[in-house]
Amino acid sequence: MRIEEGWLEGVRRVVSPNQDARPQGEVSAVVLHSISLPPGEFGGEHIERLFTNTLDAAAHPFFPSIVQLRVSAHLLIRRDGECVQFVPFDRRAWHAGRSCWIDEGRIRRALNDFTVGIELEGDEIHAYREAQYRSLAAVTKALKLNYPDMNYARITSHARVAPLRKNDPGPAFDWAYFRQCLKALG
Length: 186
Ligand SMILES: [Zn+2]
What we know:
Elements: E1 3-4, E2 7-8, E3 12-13, E4 19-21, E5 29-35, H1 46-51, E6 75-77, E7 83-85, E8 91-93, E9 100-103, E10 106-109, E11 115-121, H2 130-146, E12 155-157, H3 158-161, H4 175-185
Helix pairs in contact: 2-4
The protein binds zinc ion (ZN).
């Protein structure tokens, strides 16, 4: 996988309006998330619609509570491993919200400024799929090769940077297995 001007080559693009410039231009860490819409259901176009402000509030009883959100992520990795990119990595996506991270002893806030947000299609119950780990590892390697400040130690989760408020990607995400996938890629 290669990155060209902030976009993964060969990956489907659905441009989100929910993006702006990175204040310092820094791209140095990854925040992992999970999402399913409606919650617990996989497939369909609702996630793409949420990130492009076109979600139909009438389509499900849960949707009126989120339809007003203006959110995005750089990338969605679907259950079959397909990647969909919404925001170029050089721009700021709106995924982490209020957030805080201890970065080499320094407390940093506003993680959207310098992180890449990756959503895994999933929830807290179902194990993530092999194809998702494989895609995630390939994307992470491409990010490391493309952005000099990025490295494999700088991968965190929404749960860690927004504790009490967020729990994703949740206990179903197998960190040890993901690290193995990264190692296998070299
Ligand atoms: Zn999240």
